[in-house]
Amino acid sequence: TLFPYTTLFRSLRPDWRDPVARLLVWGATWFAILAVRNSYANADQQQAVHLSGSLAGLGTAVAGFVAVIAGLVQLAFGLTTDLLISPGTDPVLRGVITAAIGSAVWYVNWVHGARQSMRNTLWLSYVMLAGIAGSLITAIVSASSALYQTFVWFWGTPSSTDAHVHFLGTPTNGAYAVVGLAACWYHQSILHEGRKDVRTEVTRVYEYLMSGIGLGAVATGIGILVVALIEAATGTNLINNGEATNTLLMALTLLLVGTPAWWMFWSRIQNMVEASPEVEVSAPSRRGYLYLLFGVGGVAAIVSLITGIFQLFSDVFQSQFGSETFRSMRFAIGVLLTTGTVAAYHLMVYRGERQHFKAPRAMHNIILVGPNDPELVHEIVEKTGDRVQVLVAADADHRVWSHADVLAMLDTPREEDLVIVMNGHGLEAIPVVHA
Fold it and tell me: How far apart are CA 131 and CA 107, in angstroms?
């Protein structure tokens, strides 16, 4: 008598590999976690969850938009035989669905969550590393790949004479470049939102990060160019499918893409240094940037020099010295010339600025008496490096700090601690000393 019921339950047994089943289970889990989080999590925990969700949504949305753009380009140029609407198989349709889901997750977690939260280290790490740096690197790599395939088709030796085969991945690379630039521009505008006239350490870190990414592409292009020239001089073509011409085109591509990105930010930085050298030269971000480049670059140059000398003497002692020796040294020579040049240039910049170095300023205490404003505290610490303490006044519920007025009070050099009080007549700065 139990047979019909057993058969019924067996037929209703879910297959956990089914996407609908996974959606129901993980969707219910997600909503349960959200409910618990909203009830018990503090502000920092809320921000961490929102940023994590923003990152997941951003990555999913980028992948979806890339699939849509690449699929449409492939259809427009006849690079695919898929129909525009083919349920379960069409990349454009899957891209639209992926982009919609990712955008929804990103919108909930970023626009209605993390964007308005405090601009602390975690927030800045997401915006600068994932939003700006990650997007720019994606755009540079993808644009370089698409441009390289185009150059090889016209002036190099393509792997296939069939344009459909050769340019099969070019629409995807172009789509990643477009979407990456869009994401980079958006997060850059968010980073500078409301601070266009204020140059802070965050602004400097952003500019040095962008300059370093562009410089990395330029240095890689120069290194590959040296390898290509050595290959051409020695008559050996053992890289990039045996074609030194393709190697030269790869170097040209990286230089064309990386040079504008590097020069745009580096020239802006140097203009700021010329305008106010005492402030810019002593900034921790600039000191760290120069130390990193001439330090790491010098170490890489020394390692490549040792490697090249070892290969040279190895062939000399084995009586095999010749063009093959230089071919085997081509990568060591490329790294040596590239990193050595980068290290020497930034060391020269560093030495030329030593007269502007200032001794580190002693840290002071700043006490704010008025309403609680974590954003103002963050700006003061960012501007001065001092310790900031807030004493919330009993009648400060309906008052708001004027950030510009408070920061203006801190422009004057001082050797004592400072108490800034918000009273009924405005702001009052009271210097204090320890008894």
Answer: 14
Distant-in-sequence, close-in-space partners of 163: CB < 8 Å, separation ≥ 6: 153
SS3 category, 174? helix
Report CA dihedral (258, 262, 264, 267) to the nearest 10 degrees.
-150
Length of the chain equals 435
**For the packed helices 135-155 and 244-275, what is the interaxial angle rounded to 10 degrees?**
140
Is 380 within 8 Å of 407 (Cβ atoms)?
Answer: yes
Q: Which tokens hold the place of 376?
A: 């103002």
Q: What is the pTM of this model?
A: 0.71
Q: How many Å apart are CA 395 and CA 6, to the nearest integer?
A: 71
Cα torsion angle, 143, 300, 344, 293, sign? positive
Cα 254 to the center of its chain, rounded Å:
18
Three-state secondary structure call for residue 394: coil
User: 33, 72 in Cβ contact below 8 A?
Assistant: no
Which residue's structure tokens are 């103002």?
Answer: 376
pLDDT digits (tens, 9 = 90+) for 63-111: 999 999 988 888 877 766 444 444 444 778 888 989 999 999 899 889 8
Residue among 187, 65, 55 nearest 109 (CA)? 55
Q: Do 198 and 411 touch, CB atoms closer than 8 A? A: no
What phi and psi, each to the nearest 5 degrees, are found at residue 365? -105, 135
Does residue 310 contact residue 359 with C-beta atoms inside 8 Å? no
Integer Cα distance of 177 and 64 in angstroms: 14
Contact 238, 268 (CB under 8 A): no
- Buried b or exposed e, range 304-317, using 16+ CB within 10 angstroms: bbebbeebbeebee
